[in-house]
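Dear colleagues,

For the upcoming journal club I promised to circulate an example of a predicted protein-ligand complex. I picked one with pyridoxal-5'-phosphate because it came up in last month's discussion. The inputs are reproduced below in full, followed by the predicted structure.
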Amino acid sequence: TASAARVRGGRPMQNDAGHPVRYPEGNVLLRHLARDFPVVSHGEGVYLFDTQGKRYLDGSAGALVASVGHGNREVAGRIHEQLLRVGYVNGTHFTTEVTEQLASRLCALAPEGLTRAAFLGSGSEAVEAAIKFIRQLWVERGEPQRAKVITRVPSYHGNTLYALSLSGRPHYKKFFGPMLSEVVTTPAPYPYRSGLEDYARDGADHYARLLEETLQREGPGTIAAFIAEPVIGSSAGASPPPPGYFARVQEICGRYGILTLADEVMCGCGRTGRFFASELYDFTPDVLVLGKGISGGYAPLSALLVRQEHLEQMRLGSGGFMHAQTYLQAPAMTAAGLAVLDYYERHGVVANAARVGQYLQRRLREVLLPLPFVGSVQGVGLMAGVELVEDKASKKPFERSRKVVEGLLSELFAHGLVLWSNTGHADGTNGDLVMIGPPLIITEAEVDELVEKLARGITAFMERL
Ligand code: PLP
């Protein structure tokens, strides 16, 4: 915490704009030492309740996790049944029915060719494993010089050291400099600040050209992989790609043999209104990772999906992928994934996300865009972002020192609406961003409540500002 740093005489780091980096509340592991949190007693659907009896509309499903809502008895019951049978086996010795079923069901839904799955505990772990998989493949193919990964800015791929290296969020990295790995970056599409007159028409060409330039500069034969979130999550407030973008990316990467990795940790599992976001954008990656909504928060779980032919190359070479962790495919975790997937199918959750998602996107634009200080609303399905700016005409962001998004979100929180924040333009890439991503079971009436509370909150907060 800031006070602990003072006690030890620590100095705050500075960001590129010369402002001190103070992690906003919500970003530091030990922040519970610094502030009293409400104590949550239980949840029900899209609502959370604290021990004081206060009700919160969970407009961001936590961190876009609680896909099937809170207090879901059907899901909890299925996990309970599995726990009574067996909760843990060593994933390098055994498999279980829940793990096998989850793997085959996910692969049946997955973009073409992704027919093999493995399960880990978090999005960051899945990203790490995906990168190691790709790297091992290149070594086994006799191209060990392919050791660079291209990532986009802004982006977020996790908080372990390599996943953080891949994350296009400079201020997250500030303290860890020499311990991070070198990666190659290229700009990510963000409609509001693309500088293009017609983003939909010219976006794909524009960003494809930038990628091609990056490749030529680095030497395409040294590149192992290109990683992207099909819809950029927390770092750009739900930014979808311009039409045709992934077809161009795929064509360019294919030309140089570069493997593609889709990070669907946030945008996957129905969030966009399709189970896989890649599908929505005609992206057929070589490797795909899922997390968050896959278990809806009922257990830690992430998935790594790869191609049979790549695994086969390893089997014939070294014998297999060199990776294991204690909680690899633990049935306590995969049972949660299977229960959530069954719940999705039984209750039409993805179809609900598509239908109510369209409604959310329309209502957010209708209600928020006319407000002063709302620069843009973007997103797809039940994943949306709002960028607040000081001046709509010039798109000038608020001074970071004013902590606009932090102030707004704590006011909304006080009024019982939980949304997620990006930490504003600490990276200089955008203004203050609010992230919306409710449970996928949300109804239109609950969307009305969310949008109304958000609009009222923005108006009241900005008037005072
Ligand atoms: N990738 C994306 C796109 C994410 O949004 C996140 C988390 O927010 C991660 C990876 C990391 O996942 P986890 O926090 O489960 O490690």
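Two points we might discuss: Residues 63, 122-124, 127, 156-158, 229, 233-234, 263, 265-266, 291 surround pyridoxal-5'-phosphate (CB under 6 Å). Confidence is low (pLDDT under 50) at residues 1-6, 24-28.

See you all on Thursday,
B. R.
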